[in-house]
Amino acid sequence: MLLEKLNWRYAAKKMDPAKVVSEDKVERIVEAARLAPTSSGLQPFEIIVVTNAEVREKIKAIGWNQSPITDGSHLLVFAAWDNYTAERINHMFDLVNEVRGFRNEGWENYRQMLLSAYPQRDPETNFEHAARQAYIAFGLALAQAAFEGVDATPMEGFDPKALDEILGLRERGLRSVTIAPLGYRQVEGDWLVNLQKVRRPRDQFVTEVK
Amino acid sequence: MLLEKLNWRYAAKKMDPAKVVSEDKVERIVEAARLAPTSSGLQPFEIIVVTNAEVREKIKAIGWNQSPITDGSHLLVFAAWDNYTAERINHMFDLVNEVRGFRNEGWENYRQMLLSAYPQRDPETNFEHAARQAYIAFGLALAQAAFEGVDATPMEGFDPKALDEILGLRERGLRSVTIAPLGYRQVEGDWLVNLQKVRRPRDQFVTEVK
């Protein structure tokens, strides 16, 4: 099922500006990202869903003028934590205890281990670690979009600092890492739509150690 | 469909050593990773599938002694390129041209842009970029495992340098980034299996810019 959807999806280069992705589909796409596994369950990133036309025009200008940014109906921005702080770590562990209704000793020891390790590391190392987690969720959001029949174009071609400014992310301790417009492919005008998907053959991609 | 599977999955802490994941399931899990979208389609990572018992014992020893590494039947190792080189970039662009049977001018211009940008950057920056792409595929492999009814435990708790040595990855221009044993949960002995999955509520995770 998933493989079929992954074969269907591609990075749409031209979206139909007349078509709008329904809110329930967007919600499920975001939900796939929210359910993604992350290191220690910390979910060290957030998603900004931009529909505002003016804001998306600004983002397009710092995003190589890629048309899906404004021709799609929604733009997902994945923004990772700029650092792991004690407050952020404690917030998640407290939430886990609250939801589960008890404190697990091993889990509390694990909290102390993280508190003694992460906040002392340099922020850039922590940001890179957080960014990687965001990419797990990014992949799952793209997969869910395919299940919804929605086109999503994964994009790294933008100026992250400029995007952070447009969305006021740094003040919130966040840094943009990757984006994806959601919309519907416009077959006319998309050079990529009918081209074959290319992946390295299995023998160049997988090694077995038996 | 995907959301249901993501709700089913969890990071199994104890796997049943008597149960073996069938090869066709492993193939489809790897295939999901192979189909993952990556920046410029470069697929800057490989997967090593380890079944060898002795090798997995060694990996367990440098992986915090986490039992699923040896109790599962397969261990997936995601290893990212240590750098972007002209040779690697050209290899993928040549493959695309070969599969599609023609040269697209825009695509060739894009190749030149990458060649003028990536190989000159410092290797660490390129490795981090490649690692992020591996995480997209990692997420999709975990999702496919869930579709197969297979447990997969995402793990970053290992010594990457030691793992690189065990598998001889550096000589191949690769660096391990994340691993996942595949197997079947053993309900007895797994402290996590019956605990509620916890994720930050939507309002702490998503912002809308309307």
UniProtKB/TrEMBL annotation, chains A, B:
CDD domains: NfsB-like. GO terms for molecular function: oxidoreductase activity. It is an enzyme of class 1 (oxidoreductase). InterPro entries: NfsB-like, Nitroreductase, Nitroreductase-like. The keyword Iron-sulfur does not apply. Pfam families: Nitroreductase. The keyword NADP applies. Its cofactor is FMN. It comes from the Bacteria. SUPFAM superfamilies: FMN-dependent nitroreductase-like (SSF55469). Keywords: Flavoprotein, FMN, NADP, Oxidoreductase. Residues 8-184 form the Nitroreductase domain. Its EC number is 1.-.-.-. Belongs to the nitroreductase family. This is NAD(P)H:FMN oxidoreductase family protein. It comes from Caulobacter vibrioides (strain NA1000 / CB15N) (Caulobacter crescentus).
